[in-house]
Write a structure and sequence with these properties.
By secondary structure, the protein is an all-alpha fold. Helices cover about 60% and strands about 0% of the residues. It contains 8 helices and no strands. Helix 5 crosses helix 8 and helix 7 packs across helix 8.
């Protein structure tokens, strides 16, 4: 309160005017159409009822091809061989791994092995999609 008492009425008026002007300038620069306002005030989260499925979830639940999974989740490491990741269609990278059999290779891919995280970091990938991605990476060997 002591600070407020020390201010002169002109200083208080200047601060109030400055805040009012800044607020109006900000309002003028923003798009004030109904659509823009609706976009700004929409909720950040939605409640979903168990048993209901949205179209987006239904589309996401469709199996992706090995190439799609590779491009979305695997390419970051398997293109350049990051931390020893076997590169796509490079025979010497896959020889020892393929010698163990597809079941072991799939198990390592699903559960993680050495530097590879479980499912290669693709938590939403199904076992079948992981296997399809492996088959895509070794298709030309």
């Amino acid at each position: 309160m002591k600070f407020v008492k020390q201010l002169k009425w002109k200083q208080v008026l200047a601060v109030v005017a400055g805040v009012a002007i800044a607020g109006s300038v900000m309002a003028i620069t923003q798009d004030m159409s109904r659509e823009a306002i609706a976009e700004r005030i929409q909720p950040t989260m939605k409640v979903r009822i168990a048993g209901t499925e949205t179209q987006q979830q239904a589309a996401a639940s469709e199996a992706r091809s090995g190439e799609q999974v590779y491009n979305q989740a695997c390419a970051a490491c398997h293109t350049g061989g990051v931390l020893g990741a076997p590169r796509k269609n490079v025979a010497e990278d896959w020889t020892d791994r393929l010698a163990q059999g597809m079941d072991v290779l799939l198990e390592h891919s699903i559960n993680g092995f050495n530097a590879m995280p479980p499912r290669g970091g693709c938590a939403r990938c199904t076992d079948e999609e992981i296997e399809a991605a492996i088959e895509f990476m070794i298709a030309e060997l």
